Amino acid sequence: MGTIDRKAAIAAYKERKTPAGIFAVRCKATGQVWVGRSRHLDTQQNGLWFALRLGSSMNRSLQAAWNACGEAAFAFEELERLPDEILPYVLQATLKERLAHWRAELGADLI
Fold it and tell me: What is the three-class DSSP state of 39?
């Protein structure tokens, strides 16, 4: 890979849009639901599953359910993807508002 190709690849990486939004984790065995918000929906499941596999999740109830039921009992679901046009300084407030909406609608715990 030449210097020009490398610089172009780095520039393209920096300019990419990362989707933000609300997600849910469902336990099929118990019916429990947890909701969370993320500025990087595409990679959120990988990070969350990694922490749960290591037993180091910050959410004790989610970790306890994971330990009791096993990975196969859990499903990651994208509930809402926010538009790319949302300004960065409005994003956090919008995520907080949408998280409260989904939490109330699903009767879920927070992640």
Answer: coil
